[in-house]
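Budget justification aside, the reviewers requested a transparent look at the raw inputs and outputs of the sequence design task funded under Objective 1. We therefore reproduce one unedited record. The lines immediately below are the structure tokens for a 327-residue chain.
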């Protein structure tokens, strides 16, 4: 008997195609955010990104009849809070750095996962992780060398994004198997919109013109809408990818953002890459990819041991439907 579409096993390539779609959309979001960042404060761009996502995802939940688990398990809150901090770091970084540099810093999160697994869960990193960290640190220095004096805060924000991404990934991998993808993204969109709006309001009250919004019919408004739409598609695709595939292998495909970032810098901003900068990007991406292929970017085993428990509700639903169809 043919299985209904909802219960068929996903194609083996589908997690990687989802992640490639996410990488393309996140790169597009970064480019649009940098473009509009010259006219709007970075906190407004972050708020627009989350706000558009919130509207779209809530509409999707209502249309699909998917419940919103706002309280949710602790892992869901870890994912949303860490993701919100990472979102703020994202738009601070991309409005102050070259797109390719910002994306390079942001994709260092497997290194942070290795460190967090050791510091929080007591799982010592395997051989070579220390060398990978040292090589990546050298890459960061090469990238930062020509612009550190003027953009050091943006670089710290980019590295901070990778740290919060690592924390969010641990929460996402734990919560993703038990909850609907759209519900996870909806929870994140609510938390991140509230967080970004509060930061923008605080910057406005502090004297920064953070709430001077562009007219509804303007190039800036279209760019802000594009930031939100691209970010939403990327978020859904990324969440789906991690729910379907092995995190280390899925995350490896996310490094395509670096290629997209270099292309965008070349074609849109006419950037001339120095040899040291390209070498720095390679020295960061290389150890990151190596960690992923060796499992160094995978959530710790304490979380992996919970996967059968987290996946149990889905299996029970499938068994129930199968029994009904046979009966």
């Amino acid at each position: 008997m043919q299985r209904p579409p909802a219960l068929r096993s996903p194609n083996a390539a589908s997690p990687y195609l989802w992640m490639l779609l996410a990488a393309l959309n996140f790169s597009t979001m970064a480019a649009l955010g940098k473009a509009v960042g010259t006219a709007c404060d970075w906190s407004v761009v972050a708020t627009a990104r989350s706000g558009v996502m919130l509207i779209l995802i809530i509409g999707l939940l209502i249309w699909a009849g998917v419940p919103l688990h706002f309280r949710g398990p602790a892992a869901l809150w870890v994912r949303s809070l860490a993701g919100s901090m990472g979102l703020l770091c994202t738009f601070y970084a991309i409005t102050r750095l070259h797109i390719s540099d910002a994306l390079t810093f942001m994709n260092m999160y497997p290194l942070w996962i290795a460190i967090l697994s050791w510091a929080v869960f007591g799982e010592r990193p395997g051989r070579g992780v220390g060398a990978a960290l040292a090589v990546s640190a050298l890459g960061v220095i090469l990238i930062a060398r020509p612009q550190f004096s003027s953009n050091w805060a943006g670089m710290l924000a980019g590295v901070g994004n990778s740290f919060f991404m690592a924390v969010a990934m641990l929460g996402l991998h734990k919560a993703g198997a038990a909850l609907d993808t759209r519900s996870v993204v909806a929870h994140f969109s609510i938390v991140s919109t509230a967080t970004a709006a509060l930061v923008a309001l605080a910057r406005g009250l502090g004297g920064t013109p953070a709430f001077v919004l562009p007219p509804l019919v303007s190039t800036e408004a279209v760019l802000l809408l594009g930031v939100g739409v691209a970010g939403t598609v990327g978020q859904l695709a990324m969440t789906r990818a991690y729910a379907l595939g092995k995190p280390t292998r899925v995350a490896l495909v996310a490094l395509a953002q670096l290629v997209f970032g270099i292309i965008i810098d070349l074609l849109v901003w006419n950037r001339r890459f120095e040899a040291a900068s390209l070498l720095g990007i390679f020295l960061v991406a290389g150890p990151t990819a190596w960690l992923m292929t060796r499992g160094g970017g995978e959530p710790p085993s304490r979380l992996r041991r919970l996967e059968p428990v987290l996946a149990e509700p889905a299996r029970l639903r499938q068994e129930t439907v199968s029994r009904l169809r046979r009966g």
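Residues 14-309 form one domain. The longest helix spans residues 148-175. Computational costs for records of this kind are itemized in the attached budget.
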